[in-house]
Amino acid sequence: MNEPTLSRKHKSLLNPRGIALAVALIALVSLPFWGGDYLINVFILILLYMALGQMWNLLGGYAGLVSLGQQSFIGIGGYSLAMISQVYKLPIPLAFAVAAVLSVVFALIISIPIFKMRNVYFTIGTWIVAECLALFFSTWAYVNYAQGYNITATYALSPSTIYFVALAVGIGALVVVWLLLRSKLGLALMAMRDNESAAEVRGVELYRTKLKCFLISAAMTGVTGAALYLHQAFIQPSNAFGISWTVSMVFIVVIGGIGTIEGPIIGAVVFVLLRQWLYSFPGFSLVLLGIIAIAIIMIAPKGIMGLFRGRARVEIFPVRRK
Fold it and tell me: Which domain holds residue 80?
């Protein structure tokens, strides 16, 4: 009799990559039970910045939409949380749903004018939209003008609860991007990334593909924004719609490796750990962060993941379909 053989699916789960991912997932899920408050706080930031990086990478690394206005959706997500939980005293999970819906609706509205812009004009257009939102919210009585809100509903939540929210958002963003890139839409995105004109000739609908990508990114960024302000517990327009959010996303993606799923993960870890270390240098932290970024880019122009792939030729999250 022939010995029983494992199915292809079971073999894939038993390879080193599958084992490493399983160990990492177990460590992340169990972290609140063995890690201290400081470690939990660091990993909350890593997971949420990873989610932001994945969404910006989806736009800039695959769809060719270099946006400097993703903070628009962070602000919408944060204010959705503040209004739902603080003003209307409704359950916090509802705020995440509202954040996603409002972000998609707003993205759909602004896509009409900004999708008529190309290249640097699109980039500037998204940034102007975010600045206009910041000004509008600063003068809007409904959201307490520029004074912002203390989100007191978060005070009742333990650090572990907020961590599991961040874990769900971070893993969710990763899974969404991975499944998307393995779909027909993902094939269209990668074809556009390689050669937009050739992709259009082969039947890829550029406008519709980019719009879908833009809406998905908006929804997930809005949800991540709600999670960020669940952690921060205070929101005001100057911070919520500040360009520093998108600058952080760009840093994470470029340092980690643009156009890769693994890049934003590595970039988020590097970014958060660097920021924790640079708190010891008040007044010089941004300068030092810029110097470190330039050094990494000079050593690895394709990012840390690009350098690793060039030498080891290993993909942690392959998107090619057999």
Answer: 36-241
> Is-contact 180 216, C-beta < 8 A?
yes
Residue 147, in any domain of the structure? yes
Residues 6 or more apart whose CB falls under 8 angstroms from that of 242 comprise 71, 134
Contacts (Cβ under 8 Å, ≥6 apart) of 309: 257, 260, 315
Q: Give 7's pLDDT tier (boundaries 50, 70, 90).
A: low
Q: How confident is the model at residue 16 (pLDDT cuts 50, 70, 90)?
A: confident
If you count them, how many residues does the chain have? 322
Looking at this protein, which amino acid is placed at residue 208? R
Paired tokens of 104: 């998609």
Q: Into how many domains does the chain fold?
A: 1
- In degrees, to the nearest 5, what angle opens at C-alpha 215 toward C-alphas 57 and 229? 75
Using one digit for the tens of pLDDT, what is the confidence trace for 72-121?
999 999 999 999 999 899 999 999 999 999 999 999 999 999 999 988 99
Residue 155 within any structural domain of the chain: yes
Q: Among 114, 144, 143, which Cα is nearest to 129's?
A: 114
Query: Is the CB of residue 225 less than 8 Å from the CB of residue 135?
Result: no
Asked, for residue 45, whether it belongs to a domain, the answer is yes
Is there a contact between 214 and 65 (Cβ–Cβ < 8 Å)? yes
Within a domain: residue 208? yes
Distance CA 152, CA 71 (A): 23
Of the pLDDT bands very low, low, confident and very high (cuts 50, 70, 90), residue 314 is low
pTM exceeding the 0.90 threshold for the entire prediction: yes
Q: Which amino acid is at 308?
A: F
